[in-house]
Specification:
heterodimer; A: alpha/beta; Aspartate Aminotransferase, domain 1; Aspartate Aminotransferase, domain 2; 2 domains; seven-stranded mixed β-sheet; 12 helices; 15 strands; globular; B: about 475 residues; alpha/beta; 13 helices; 12 strands
């Protein structure tokens, strides 16, 4: 077996050194009645060549580009990833290292994560960002728990236009805690209705996503005002980080905590994971942050270096009083995001943001001209909601056979929006792809 | 001694990203603009982020240089206790990179995602078989996330019985994340000490287990690298009071094919695919922390779950008692691909052999080093062994000094100062993928370091000398945090 290096001779001499007669005898402290009598019922070992064939067969069943044009975003976006990013990310010094507990041997990871924290803070207009969380949904749940710690209040309000799956994760995290999660309805323009805030007391946080699940850009500035009037913190969420290449960042509009999904930043969709949970905040909440943080310091010779820091917030020191139980996070995904942001630069992020917006506007315009209803007036980024005629499922399934996935049906998430579809266009969708889609849905 | 691995070489300095670059450079080839610009009102748009503009080569050199300041399993031996830093087969990376798997959208219709659903279905089945459990969720993203999920399941179980409980027993030999995971679910952790053999006695558990205790969270093998010999009796005691047994399976690498936790009283356990199942740790993730359960907890597993209906795989939400969701989608699928690829590469016989050799390697190190380093529990160990700095403290050389000196010799240090039950702990987990020659060199290096501790302790106090940086000022880093540039 090529993954196990021991020869029979090695095993014999090592057993002798240990003083036991065979490999089974190594398990003398495992009581007889705890040992497995039979064998594991698993498929027999495959050679690497056989494994390649098996996996290629699984891979070939999937509906992915270029054979399929997928017009779905909804929290997972297809953006072009340059070869340099994938190549650098494969450097095994990054890939095969552990969490950087020994900083002298991990300066590569540590500097890269420090840079990631900085770029994320700049992207979102915040002062500090954590090293990473599991995904956007977990980051939202952790942000809300953080707001509860920071304000010592017991309720949170979450917009109904926050990604529906994220809201379910928040419900799961909150269920055993006794803290209450309230939901804010939405207005016919496709943005969150804030009127209900006035009736809510003891609010620790209000979570709004922008662009929201319908793709609409929320009025974060106005929201911040209304939220702060209640004494709560504004938690601004996002699922599409590329939007902040073009849009005003949440920090400049009064957000206290910003959290979301960073998958857009150079991470393949990979059937929904691993992604990148992003969490950033104002400096004053730094000690309430959950998760790992990298800080700059100096070595004995006064040379710049980086370490994991503020560990007294964390589980291995604080135990049950920790700000989170998180240990392994999504460090390599944060590294991918940093490499991607570095490759684009400020200029590239801006151009990419504009291209996404403009392409989506083109499709929106074409669908409108073709007579389909664009449900919400509010400006959008690279996603929007369109209403197709009743019975559209038939066309939808027909289009699947032609290699077109015509958006995401909203009915399972918003029963009142039957026949409404959430469409997404990124830079990898060409005008021709969009023209084909419009032609097909019309016919 | 053989020539030491650690040497000096030319490392290049590299500034921070924003200390290089020039406005107008680019490292990215943007897909073409084939549509007209569209209007977006200025009230919505910003200036664009304040990022440096870099060329592709700027970026490539930056990260290549940074990578050279790092040490990974591919660089050398990484005997970090409880972390199972085994070799990460390269074929795993290839499989996870196949375009059908790596670029699939999570909300594709089931008809366009049969391959990934089949993979998840089979991986879940294999993990249930390895652990002796009845069902598995792949959704949790890491070990601690699996712990949280397990606690949510226990919480939901008691809730369904109509009697919520307030405590969970957490032994002193459990992983550090356990008390925090317990607290996230609103439970109070009840500490219990291990006995003079380093394991839990039935008496200690009987004393604290009561009808207000939801269960026990036991790490087996525990963080001293010892098998919890009384596990069956402990499980019986906990069950007799209506509690559940959670097993932290981070140390499963010791017992694959040897012990099935489901057969010896465990109701729920998490696994770390990034430990036992060879997926790389990535400098701190992404990991994957599947949770395996017995039938009693199965109705509460997170949704959606993959099911096979009439030969087709589908995602089903139809579990009204489910705890809900712990991640937006289905877990770290890219990591699952690698673990699946590992299980298929190994097959049942080699998985068992991997555990046997992991235990052999740890016992070999324990026997060879126990004269050099103090061994607080001199008993047969599982996949890791725990020493202390008791002998070296006579010369004022502490665990940290020896750890830092190991770097100069080209080894990543073991886990240090954990578990807390051993003062100045040095926790060594060699894993099965290290060969005898490398173990011998590690042992010999520790002997040299122990000699240095006696003869020239300052050599150790000043270590490391051969890394990119010397010891770093962690106190100032925490006192005056600088978290962004």
């Amino acid at each position: 077996m090529h993954l196990l290096p021991h020869t029979d001779e090695d095993i014999a001499s090592m057993l002798e050194a240990v003083g036991v007669k065979d490999l089974d005898a190594l398990f003398s402290t495992v009581p007889e009645d705890c040992r497995l009598k039979g064998k594991l019922d698993l498929p027999k070992a495959l050679s690497e060549w056989e494994l390649n064939h098996h996996m290629e067969a699984l891979s070939s069943t999937m509906g992915v580009s270029p054979a399929y044009k997928v017009f779905i975003g909804a929290g997972s976006y297809e953006h072009f990833i340059p070869a340099s990013v994938s190549y650098l990310l494969g450097r095994s010094e990054f890939v095969t290292s552990y969490t950087p507990y020994q900083p002298e041997m991990s300066q590569g990871t540590l500097q890269a994560i420090y840079e990631y924290q900085t770029l994320i803070a700049r992207l979102l207009g915040m002062e500090v960002a954590t090293a990473s969380h599991y995904d956007g949904a977990a980051a939202l749940a952790e942000s809300l728990l953080m707001a509860i710690r920071a304000t010592k209040r017991t309720k949170v309000a979450v917009s109904g236009l926050v990604h529906p799956l994220y809201r379910r994760v928040v419900q799961t995290y909150f269920e055993p805690t006794g803290y209450e999660v309230l939901e804010l309805p939405y207005l016919k323009e496709g943005v969150t209705e804030l009127a209900a805030l006035r009736e809510m007391d003891d609010l620790a946080a209000v979570a709004i996503q922008s662009p929201n699940f319908f793709g609409c850009i929320e009025d974060l500035e106005g929201t911040a005002q209304a939220v702060h009037d209640t004494g709560a913190l504004l938690v601004a969420g996002f699922t599409e980080a590329v939007a902040y290449g073009l849009l005003k960042n949440p920090g400049s509009q009064g957000a206290d905590i910003v959290c979301g999904e960073g998958q857009s930043l150079g991470i393949p969709r990979s059937f929904g994971g691993p992604g990148l949970g992003v969490l950033a905040s104002r400096q004053k909440f730094m000690r309430s942050l959950p998760g790992r943080l990298v800080g700059q310091t100096k070595d004995l010779d006064g040379k710049r270096g980086f370490v994991l820091t503020l560990a007294t917030r964390e589980q291995h020191i604080r135990r049950e009083k920790a700000t989170s139980n998180i240990c392994t996070n999504n460090s390599l995904c944060a590294l991918a995001a940093a490499m991607y942001m570095a490759s684009l630069g400020g200029t590239g992020m801006r151009e990419l943001g504009a291209l996404n917006h403009d392409k989506a506007e083109y499709l929106k315009g074409e669908l409108k001209s073709a007579g389909f209803g664009i449900t919400f007036d509010r400006p959008t980024f690279n996603e929007f909601v369109v209403e197709f005629p009743p019975g559209f499922e038939v066309t939808y399934n027909h289009l699947l056979e032609k290699g077109i996935v015509a958006g995401l049906s909203l009915a399972p998430y918003y029963p009142e929006l039957a026949n409404h579809y959430l469409m997404c266009v990124t830079e990898i969708i060409s005008r021709e792809d969009m023209d084909t889609l419009v032609r097909e849905v019309k016919s | 001694m053989k020539e030491p691995l650690g040497t000096t070489g030319l490392l290049l300095n590299e500034p921070l990203l924003w200390e290089k670059g020039k406005k107008g450079r680019r490292g990215f080839s943007l897909p073409p603009r084939d549509i007209e610009p569209a209007h977006l009102d200025k009230e919505f748009t910003g200036e664009g982020p304040d990022f440096p503009d870099l060329s592709e080569m700027d970026v490539v050199r930056h990260y290549t240089r940074l990578s050279q300041w790092n040490f990974g399993v591919d660089t050398g031996m990484y005997p970090l206790g409880s972390c199972t830093m085994k070799y990460n087969p390269k074929t795993n990376e290839r499989q996870a990179g196949l375009s059908g798997l790596s670029t699939a959208h999570p909300l594709l219709p089931a008809s366009l995602s049969q391959g990934v659903l089949k993979l998840m279905f089979e991986l879940g089945k294999h993990l249930s078989e390895i652990t002796g459990m009845d069902a598995t969720t792949l959704q949790p993203a890491a070990g601690a996330h699996g712990e949280l999920t397990g606690m949510l399941l226990i919480h939901a179980f008691h809730k369904s019985k109509g009697t919520q409980r307030s405590k969970i027993i957490v032994p002193d030999t459990a992983h550090g994340t356990n008390p925090a995971s317990v607290a996230l679910c609103g439970y109070k952790p009840v500490p219990v000490n291990s006995d003079e053999k380093g394991i839990l006695s039935l008496a200690a558990i009987s004393q604290v287990m009561d009808e207000d205790t939801a269960g026990i969270m036991i790490t087996n093998p525990n963080t001293l690298g010892l098998f919890e010999e009384n596990i069956r009796g402990i499980a019986q005691t906990v069950h007799s009071k209506g509690g559940l047994v959670y097993c932290d399976g981070a140390n499963l690498n010791a017992v694959m094919g040897v012990v099935k936790m489901g057969d010896i009283g465990v109701d729920v356990m998490h696994l770390n695919l990034h430990k036992t199942f060879s997926t790389p740790h990535g400098g701190g993730g992404p990991g994957s922390g599947p949770v395996c359960v017995k039938n009693s907890l199965e109705p509460f597993l997170p949704v959606p779950r993959v099911e096979k209906r009439d030969g087709q795989y589908v995602l089903s939400e139809d579990y009204p008692e489910s705890v809900g969701k712990v991640l937006a989608f289905y877990g770290n699928f890219g990591v699952m691909v690698k673990a699946y690829s590992y299980i298929l590469s190994m097959g049942p016989e080699n998985l068992k052999r991997a555990s046997q050799l992991a235990v052999l390697n740890a016992n070999y190190i324990k026997e060879k080093l126990k004269g050099t380093l103090h061994l607080p529990y001199d008993r047969p160990c599982m996949h890791e062994c725990v020493f202390s700095d008791k002998y070296q403290m006579a010369n004022k050389v502490a665990t940290l000094d020896m750890a830092k000196r190991l770097m100069d010799y080209g080894f990543h240090p073991p886990t240090v100062y954990f578990p807390l039950v051993v003062h100045g702990a040095i926790m060594v987990e060699p894993t099965e993928t290290e060969c005898k020659e490398d173990l011998d060199q590690f042992i010999e290096t520790f002997e040299v370091i122990a000699k240095e501790a006696r003869e020239d302790p300052d050599l150790l106090h000043e270590a490391p000398r051969k890394c990119k940086v010397r010891r770093l000022d962690e106190t100032t880093a925490a006192r005056k945090p600088c978290l962004a540039g």
